[in-house]
Write a structure and sequence with these properties.
By secondary structure, the protein is mainly α. 71% of the residues lie in helices and 0% in strands.
C-alpha cells in the first residue's frame, strides 16, 4: 500500500468533508475511481481537475493550490 502524500491527505479530507465517496467524486469529475485513489495516494491532479474539485466541494481554488504547494514544500 502506498503512503499518502501530504497533498493526497488534504484531497481525501476535502472529499470526505464534502460527503463524497471516491466513486461519487470520480463520476462528477468524469474520471475513474482508481484515478481519485491515485491522486489521494501518489500523484495529485492537474489544474483543470482542481478547478472542478473546487466547484464540487465549494472550496476556493486558490486555497486548494496554496495548501498543496505548502504541503509539498514541507520537510
Amino acid at each position: 500500500m502506498l503512503t499518502p502524500t501530504p497533498y493526497g491527505r488534504i484531497l481525501r479530507a476535502w472529499r470526505r468533508q464534502a460527503g463524497l465517496s471516491q466513486q461519487a467524486l470520480a463520476d462528477r469529475l468524469g474520471v475513474r475511481q482508481s484515478t481519485i485513489s491515485g491522486w489521494e495516494t501518489a500523484a495529485g491532479p492537474g489544474l483543470a481537475i482542481l478547478r472542478r474539485w473546487a466547484e464540487i466541494t465549494g472550496l476556493p481554488l486558490a486555497e486548494i493550490v496554496a495548501l498543496g504547494e505548502t504541503q509539498q514544500d514541507a520537510p
